[in-house]
Write a structure and sequence with these properties.
With about 325 residues, the chain is α+β, with helices and mostly antiparallel strands. It folds into two domains: about 130 residues, no CATH class; about 170 residues, no CATH class. It is about 50% helix and about 15% strand. It is built from ten helices and eight strands. It is elongated, with a radius of gyration of 28 Å.
Length: about 325
Amino acid sequence: MEVEALAESLRQEGEVSSVSIPSEAGQPYEFRVKTSPEDWRGTVFYVNPYTGEYQQTQESSLDGFFMWNFRLHRWLLLDTETGRPIVGIATIFFFFISLSGLVLWFPKKLKWRNMKAGFKIKTSANWKRINHDLHNTLGFYACIFLVVMTLTSLCWSFEWYREAGSAVIGTKIFNRGGGPGFTSNENISAEEERSVAEIYKISSTELAYSGTTMISFPSEESQLYSIRKYKEDNWSPVTSDQLVIDRDGKVLNKEIFSEKSTNVQIASLIKPIHTGEIFGTFSKIIYFLACLIATSLPITGTIIWWNKRTKKKKSNKGRSGKRKAILEVQ
């Protein structure tokens, strides 16, 4: 079935805003439909491209739990004006604590013989040494990822930090304006308008490789087709090439991600760098392990502190006993 026919059948559910067409035949099309004025992001409907049957994504009992975690992570369950700066300040403390831990990891004498012990956990030692190695060694391995997460997260917390980062990088971070604006030709007649299938064919010609294509339909705000295509064998699953196409099929703009300057690429990848989506599942697993280690560091660090405190008390008690014995002899 044509995409127009599929979209038409979905209009009874609400305003159809976009469609994602997979590269593999037989896979369902993913439509986004604004089912209500409050549903500004749109609800996902999976559509069989052959029969037109569709199914709305079902709400899960975990949806509320994950949203609760999101609000806790971003704003500590407070309103954004209060929670955002608190999280930002705590993140700055975390950054300096991470750097101080990295400094303490290095031995006083920078020789390989002294450093190599910090790269491994001595499992045959007593529990105090194992706890120390868990804190010291795992913290070292996780530090680089934790610092990256910290530096990128501050872009959401403070506008001054985001502007400073934009100045350092040389391009605007979170540039949702999309660069120069494009407007549709108002003189396009109904006969000149291309179908979605034709727009898709034009995008496949302009971006001649296999990958998922997402087409945003013309709306009241913009009478243009906005297209993103994700290359299958790309180094990152989150990067895409973009097209802006008028209703008559004229290509108004073409952006190839690999042709963008390095600073623009970095600025556009701040979010996936922060969340670990940058390299797909592999980087997500690495980030998960790093966060798991970060969660354990306060525990292992507290145990190290307590052991040193107990040892110091015993040492002071031993010195007091010796001093008392000497006084008694005298």
